[in-house]
Amino acid sequence: xxxxxxxxxxxxxxxxxxxxxxxxxxxxxxxxxxxxxxxxxxxxxxxxxxxxxxxxxxxxxxxxxxxxxxxxxxxxxxxxxxxxxxxxxxxxxxxxxxxxxxxxxxxxxxxxxxxxxxxxxxxxxxxxxxxxxxxxxxxxxxxxxxxxxxxxxxxxxxxxxxxxxxx
Length: 167
Description:
There is one protein chain. By secondary structure, the chain is an all-beta fold. The protein is built from no helices and 12 strands. Strands 5-4-3-2-8-9 form a 6-stranded antiparallel beta sheet, with no helix packed on it. The protein has a 4-stranded antiparallel beta sheet with strand order 6-7-1-12, with no helix packed on it. A two-stranded antiparallel ribbon has the order 10-11. Strand 2 (25-36) and strand 3 form a beta hairpin.
């Protein structure tokens, strides 16, 4: 059956504004843990690219290798306002009940321990270089993102990205 999950996150901090601010933006890739009915494994890291018709499942260490799966980014909205830099992504994915072939776990939609990694890009005016970073659900918070070129704070990841099953 077709399911939809909503993923939301926000970066805050005075570092996001002003003449010293890096040009920070959400990248169009994300990783999300799903139970994959194709390889019949729970909690697989699935890679999504905005605009792609399918996602890529990490598969399992033994047997099933990386493979495409029936999932996609259905919507990807970003805002850059006074509150901070926010993102909202809707993920459509096919889900079917099964028992994990390796450890016998039952499936859930989304998986019983949802995990997400959201990617960011930025431009450092001082170094005249671009860079990337990411936030994910299993970081200690608050977490400061720092420029890899000048070591200045890009923004603060104060709250865990939220994952909510819609349908």
